[in-house]
Protein 1
Amino acid sequence: MIIAEQKPLKELLELTKEFKNILVVGCGACVSICFAGGEKETATLAASMRLAARADKRELKTTESMTLRQCEWEFIEPLAEDVEAADVVLSTACGVGVQAMAEKYPHKLIIPALNTTSMGMPVEQGVWLENCGGCGNCILGSTGGLCPIARCAKTMLNGPCGGSQNGKCEVSSEIDCVWDLIYKRLKGQGLLNLMIELAPPKDWTSARDGGQRKIIREDLIIPESRPFKDEK
Ligand code: SF4
Ligand code: SF4
């Protein structure tokens, strides 16, 4: 899932200060699970903005809408009327949802209410952990299912750096050294031989250094339904 957290209210009030009629649009997917942009958070944010505006003697009306997923055209199409009626849209989706809204409604300013941080999962109540950096060429098959790209501060690919101490990362004693975890996992699986094999320099062309990445499945394409025509 995509992990995000709400921006400070003060920042959102500043970002929207020019506007009197704000549509706050929530998303029912990842950001609901991390309690940042679901139905409850959207309603609470809208109410907080109204209260803060009133305390500031600022005229402000808010309307709320929910989408099942703000990152797909079919779910944001029905928002057209609400978007038209508002001066500005405050989106509590992740950065993908905000950009989908901005693409769909280019004449309207779409302001992000969240800071999108990472891809990961809830590991316990109230704790979300990044565990995939979206490198485009997954190596989990040789690292015991633990990602050194997302979880190692130095993205080490052939074992720990010299700072690994007692299972902890040199960056912080609160952070496990992922290479220590990989060693223990592979040892438990009787697969330590995987650690002995040297990983060649990683080919990062599948990562995001070459700009926006794209996956094309020719078998699924319906040409007339494509909002972005490819230049291939
Ligand atoms: S190796 Fe790459 S794709 Fe696999 S979990 Fe790590 S960052 Fe994600
Ligand atoms: S201590 Fe471990 S997790 Fe931390 S930077 Fe070094 S190898 Fe990576």
Note: Residues 132-135, 138-140, 147, 149-150 surround iron/sulfur cluster (ligand 1) (CB under 6 Å).
Protein 2
Amino acid sequence: MGDIAGKNTKKDLLWHLQGNWAPVDKEISELNLEIKGEIPKDLNGLFLRNGMNPKSGHSDHWFFGNGMLHGLYLENGKASYKNRYVVTPYLEKDLDVISSFGDLTASPANTHIVEHAGKVLALEEAHLPWEVDKDLNTIGAYDFAGKLKGAMTAHPKICPETGEMFFFSYSMMGEPFLNYYRVDDTGQLIQSEPIEIPRPVMMHDWSITRNHVIFMDLPIVSDMDLAVTTGSPFGFKPECGARLGVMPRDGGNKDIKWFEIDPCYVFHSFNSFEEDEKIILYVSRQQEAMVGGFQDIYGGESTVARLWRWTIDLKTGHVKEEQMDDGACDFPRIDDRRVGLKSSFGYSLQIETDVESLTFGNHFYKYQLETGLRIDHDLGNNIAGGEPVFAPCSDVSEEDEGWVMSFVHERDTRKSKLVIIDSRDFESQPVAEVYLPQRIPYGAHGSWMPNK
Ligand SMILES: [Fe+2]
């Protein structure tokens, strides 16, 4: 079976090439997969997940591996699987990341996969998106008819009310360090705004509300002083401070109001929404990040996230910061039909602490966001989860009425499977487990794309 992991058993390998982080070396298609339990009949569509899978078997950093898509097709209770690389110049020319910076199309395309206005886009945050189809064929670099001149974040937000897609790009190379973009519901890029921030920062995610977008200016900075102390030009510098920037969706730099918060880092947000004169954000907040430099993804307890709530009082300028739970977790998701709107529930992946490198845990957490009340789904011993993605029962079902899906990995058997959990019966065993014909390496983000 296509699996480079067997060759990667030396202890001196970088953590992101060991065990189930190691890439697979086969692109396969298989119909009629083995199913334990029963796939809900109303769950018809494609669960598509992106992740880093270095074709050579090696990459210098977890973030640098070639993007591979893993697609699980569900139809009338049956399941099939296909995996394919996103075929970009980064893959075809076997570029290293430094060389890729000279070509906006040379994306690893390895971080997320989203569908908007009929396009399926493979995303990474330093290059253009790459369009693929649902058979996982690569179509080409996508620049919104020539209107996108820079990179695109891997975490765009799609408004469930207007169908618009909002995104940003950040640059560590030169000003503007931040740009904002708005795309209408037909896929036309209709607004581009340069945004002023005092220094280049790594901005991985952000949030929207019904009327606003919220940027997170947090202190993973690009700074040559850091290169001297950590050997990496990127790293955590809390003395630079941390701010949230609230801007009307149709506004520009002059319209942003900035709000100071305690220095921290947030790779991922759950959701945010407006309530009276306040904006409420639920985020996976960690005390610090990349303290030892860019290579230092995991550095102990303070570098693992928890659920926090930030309440921005737009009148007073004060931000109330509250830790809602002590469970270490990341890769948060919500019911995507509530993005930017008041939402009651969030789903997240437990992350292990007291380990030597980033380690996905064997629990999913379901949060009642307002109270921080947590319900755990235990995957079982020696099983590691992935990002939990929510799929509603139908377009009109209530929030949380649906299924939580994820690719998980059995360490003992070295097999991967898709688990489908009834969201309203979260603690119970999955209603279905679909065994995959090959191992699926731990990866990044994915989406549920229901059949139309
Ligand atoms: Fe992410």
Note: The radius of gyration is 21 Å.
